Amino acid sequence: MITSTEQAIEAIRQRAKDAGFKMNDIAYAAGVDPAQLSRWSTGKTVPLYSNIMKLEQAVDALIAAKAPQ
């Protein structure tokens, strides 16, 4: 069964991929250990809501920085 956390991380992954970023880019921008992000992505551990929000904000910031002004 897919959880809402897994759906949120998959949506973040897809947005990052569509913008040309890897999940490591998102992890570093969010201040999250890439290994921890991997554990969240595989369902081994469950992130706090605040960590999902950090990932969302990191994706937004990277996309905004990449966008032409």
Describe this protein's structure.
The chain has helices spanning 4-18, 23-30, 34-42, 49-66. The protein starts with a helix and ends with a helix. The protein is mostly helical. It has a single domain (4-66), classed as Orthogonal Bundle (434 Repressor (Amino-terminal Domain)). The mean pLDDT is 91. The protein has four helices and no strands. The radius of gyration is 12 Å and the shape is globular. 72% of the residues lie in helices and 0% in strands.
Say what the CATH topology is: 434 Repressor (Amino-terminal Domain)
Q: Total helix count?
A: 4
How far apart the termini lie comes to 42 Å
Q: Based on helices, strands and strand pairing, what is the structural class? A: mainly alpha
CATH class: Mainly Alpha
> From N to C, what is the helix and strand string?
HHHH
Task: Summarize the structure in short.
This protein has 69 residues and is mainly alpha-helical.
Could you outline the blueprint of secondary structure elements for this entry?
Layout: H1 4-18, H2 23-30, H3 34-42, H4 49-66
Which tags fit this structure?
about 0% strand; 4 helices; single chain; about 70 residues; 434 Repressor (Amino-terminal Domain); mainly alpha
